[in-house]
Each structure stands twice: as C-alpha cells, then as structure tokens.
Amino acid sequence: MKLLKEPLLHFLLIGAAFFVLFALVNPESVTSEKRIVVENGRINNMVAVFARTWNREPSREELQGLIDNFILEEIYYRQALAMGIDENDPVIRRRLRQKMEFFTSEASSRVTPEDKELEQYLQTHADKYQTDNSYSFEQRYLSPDRPADQLEKLLQQTAQQIAKGEMAFGDQTLLPSNFSAASGFEVNRTLGDGFSEKLDSLPVGEWSGPIQSGLGFHFVKLRERQIGQLPPLAQVRDKVLRDWSYDKSLALKQDLDKKLKEEYQVIIKWPKKA
Questions:
Q1: What predicted TM-score, i.e. pTM, was given to this entire model?
Q2: What Rg do the C-alpha atoms of the chain give, in angstroms?
Q3: Lower CB density within 10 Å: C or N end of the chain?
Q4: Which of 87, 106, 122 is the endpoint of a domain?
C-alpha cells in the first residue's frame, strides 16, 4: 500500500495512460516509425565525448549505458514529435531557430574570399584599419587649483609670453612634459579624452595655448604630427578576413530571411486595442 502513495509511481502511471490515450486517438502517429539504428559513427562520437570528459575511454558497461540512454532519448524524441508536444513551445521554437541560423553561419564560414575581394573590403572600410595619428610635442601644465582671477591673469601672461616666441612655463606636475611619437590613444589616456583632436589644428614648431583638458590648462609646442596610414592588406589580413566573414555571414542571413519570408503568406490579425 505504501508503494501506491509514491509520487514517482503516480507520475509513471499518468504518463503511461497519456501515451495509451494518444495511441488510441492517433494510432498511426505512434506506430509510424519503430526502427532505431545506432550507427558506428554515433557510437564513436559517444566514445569521443566520454573520453574528453573523463580523460579515458568508457568501459563496455559504460558504453552500453550511453547507447541505452541514446535509444531512450530517441524514443522519447520521436514520441514527442508524434504527439505534437513541440508545437507552440517557445523554448523549442527558439532553439530550432538558433540551429537554423547556426547552419547559415556555418555555410558562410566555408566561403574563402580571394585577396582581391579582401583588398576591396579594406579600401571600403579604411577607417576601421587606418593607424592612429601620432604626435611629438612638449606641454606645460597650469593647475586650475588657484583663485579664478589669479588663474586668468597667469593664463594671459603665459599666452603673451609664447606670442613673443618665448618658452612657456608651468606648474610642477607628474604629467610628462614631452611626448615622442605618441598615438592619439596614448595622448588621450594621459591628458584626457579629446586632447589629441585639439592637437590636429595646432601649428608645428611653435607654442600654442592655452588648451583646456579635464586636468587643467596646457601650453603645447607641437614638434611633429604624423597622419595615420592605411596599412597594406598583408599586415592586417587576419583582421580583415574576420570582419569580412562576419559581414558576409550577416548579409547571407539577411538574404535568407528575406527569401524565406517570400515563401510564406503572412497575415497579421492585430488586436483591436493595438
């Protein structure tokens, strides 16, 4: 009598009754495919997965257990399809879509472009691969931590000083006073975002300023400015190939989505409140 109170038994009985009931209502769908063949390739894959997980091959008993589990999984899978359990299930629908999209991505990844096509892609997307501008300059820093009138007077005096061709002087600081062939990224990382863009408009060989940053004020003597160059394909080929493959995969998916939609008549019945 205790056995009759077990929840597991109740679950099995309900499940069995459900299968029987469905078989009575839809006998053809349950008996349509009763043959299961476990191929050599499937078994080899089981062995390989087990070996990767446990760093050894399965014993005969373990392998038999894997095969039995696969057979049971296949039976439940077929039975679920026959009973339509997969219908209107958002998790299953999402997973199947993901697998379809994976196949599309896998197909596009097998396409190997010629260097001519990669070169064209490089030229079309030059801004993604062009090297950063580099700058060589001196800078003198004035701290804003002083009374406003005193700061304004000091800025004016220094501006007049450099207008006469004299060297600018500044406060003691831990900031470097000299930059040599520093990239725009390095300059911005040290002196604040956007500082390198302000250097692009400065004359070479003379003091300029004041230039304000998030740190304070700077007087700058630009010695050299090197404009970024587009590297040859051989130098950035791997990156160009990755980007080309991603864009190609995206384009193929969009094209496939469009063509698939054309195969269906879509009717949208909007609710009245929408």
A1: 0.51
A2: 35
A3: N
A4: 87
Domain that holds residue 212: 131-226
Q: How do strand 134-142 and strand 217-226 relate by DSSP bridges?
A: antiparallel
Q: Is 186 domain-assigned? A: yes
Structural domain count, the chain = 2
3-state secondary structure of 228: coil
Q: pLDDT of the chain along its 274 residues, tens only? A: 444 444 444 444 454 554 444 444 444 444 446 788 898 889 999 999 999 999 999 999 999 999 999 898 888 888 888 888 878 888 888 888 888 777 777 766 677 888 999 999 999 999 899 888 999 999 999 999 999 889 999 999 888 888 888 888 888 889 999 999 999 999 999 999 999 999 998 999 999 989 999 899 999 999 999 988 899 999 999 999 999 988 988 888 888 888 877 887 877 777 777 5
Structure-block tokens of residue 98: 């993901």
